[in-house]
Every structure is written in C-alpha cells, then in structure tokens.
Amino acid sequence: MTREYRIDDLVDFATYPLDQPNSIAYKNVVDDARSQLQQDGCAVIRNLLRPTALKVIGQEIVERKSKTHYSTSNMNPYFHSEKNPQYPDHHPVNTFIERSSGFIPGDSWDSSLAIDVLFRSDLLTNFIRDALETEAVHCYADPLAGLTANILDPGQQFAWHFDTNEFAVTAMIDEADDGGLFQYVPMIRNPDDEAFENIQRVLDGNLENVKTLELRAGDLQIFRGRHSLHRVTRVPKNSRPRHAAIFAYTAEPGVIGRVERTKQLFGRVLPAHEQAERLRVRTDQLID
Q1: Is the domain 28-279 a CATH 2.60.120.620 member?
Q2: Quick one: which H or E segment has residue 245?
Q3: Fewer CB atoms inside 10 A, N or C side of the chain?
Q4: Of 184, 122, 182, 115, residue with least CA distance to 148
C-alpha cells in the first residue's frame, strides 16, 4: 500500500515552524532567510528536511533515474552553444565550457510521492514567498521543468550559467563525497548592464569574487539566479553521485519555460511549450 505523505512528515517543524506563520519562531526563520537574500541573493535553510524525508525522496529519485535526460555540450553562460560573430572571440558570449549533467523531468513524478508533496505544499510556498518578500509564489506550471531532480554523476559538472527565472529553490538530497560544490558571484549583472568584462574574468578562472557553498543533505537553498553567475563544480569519478531536488516557482501563475532551454535540459518539448513561446512577452532584455 502506498503511503500518503504530509508536509510535517518531511519538514522539521520543531526547528522550522512553517505551520505557525504568526509565531515568533517563524518570524525569526523568515528574518534570517531575508537577511541572507538581501546580502547576496542566496539563503540556505540548514537541515529543513527530516532524515526520513531524505531517505524517501532519495529512493524516489533513484527509482526514476532511468528517466534522466543526460546531455553533454559546450555552453556559454547563456545556454548557447554556437559562436556569435557579433562579439569578439574572447567574450562571455563566445566562451564555451563543458556542461554535463542530467535532469529527471517533471512528468516523471505523481502526487503520491513525497517530493511532489513537498514541492506543492502551501506551507513551503508561503515560507518562500515571505522569505523573498514578494506578494505571491506559484508552482512553476511547466510540465517538465516545474519539479525536477538534477543529477550529477561521477565526472559531471554544471558549468557557469544564469537562470531564466528570478529565483530557484533547491533541496539537497544526496551529496557527492567530494566536489559538487555550488559556487556563485552575487548580482554580477543587472537589467541595465550585462557586465561582460566582469563575467569574462570569472570564466577565465578569476575566483576572487566567487562564493562557495557546501550544501548538505537536508538543506534548502533559495537563490536569485537571474543576475548571479553560478555553477556546480565537477563531481570526481570516484565519488557518489550528487542528487538535488529542484523546485521551480514563479511570481505569476501559469508560466511555461522557453522552448530552446527546455530542449537543452530535457531533450524534448511539449505542445504547451510551443504555445507559450508564441505568446511570450519578455520581462527584460538580457541575453538570457
């Protein structure tokens, strides 16, 4: 018989009382997350998930790992793989780095699974909304990219890039034995400045302004990745794989992802993506 999971089976409410939004303890947790986000666009809520949640979700990922879409390609930070003659050779647009990882797509999960219960919990989305100091947070409606698991098997890395959405939420489920570190440069660009020169320095190996996070199993990360360059370093060949649940949310309901990036990450698109592409209105003029 399949067990029905509740959010309090998965989250440590004693430490993080998401079910008591009017309590002082909840306010303290939100204030801490806000402070981290205001400082550099990244907040880590340590050990949010119970050990039992890690065991169950870890097994859910392993059972669906055969559905992972793996891809290896040389990409610039904007997820493009072809040289652009409008820019110099030594330029972020024409600097390509190996990206080798996999994603388990959103249509691999169903509502009976613990990972889905966590993603769609009103208590969790309300907490994320409060931490981000925004009016609303909605589960990303994209049928492939809303709820995913990022897979970094031994030898793989996720190269420097920017996100297309304003923020991302990651739950670390299985750590690598070594490597697999999250690195980022806070707010390196903004809607009015692509900051190509600063980005190129990072791509050339200057890590002076790079921050490194050692995310542990059970940690939840809220990250503003639209303007912050970031990557996950290579997992060594003798390491366990790195598995992370990716919870995608949007400020508006019904948002669907871009066709090009969906193909890159999942190897396919659905009719919903093609329709959304025809109707899309850009929110900024950044390359992507």
Answers
A1: yes
A2: strand 242-247
A3: N
A4: 115
**Where exactly are the structural domains of the chain?**
28-279
In the chain, helix, strand, coil percent, each to 5?
A: 30, 25, 45
What type of residue sits at position 94?
N
pLDDT of 1 > 60? The answer is no
User: Residue 166 pLDDT > 90, yes or no?
Assistant: no
Q: What is the DSSP string of 197-239?
A: HHHHHHHTT--TT-EEE---TT-EEEE--SSSEEEEPPPPTTS
Report angle CA 147, 149, 154 to the nearest 5 degrees. Answer: 170
Per-residue pLDDT tens for 251-263?
888 888 888 888 8
DSSP state letters, 137-171:
-EE---TTTSEEEEEE-TT-BEEEE--SSS-EEEE
Helix (H) or strand (E) holding 175: none
Q: What are phi and psi of 130, to 5 degrees?
A: -65, -40
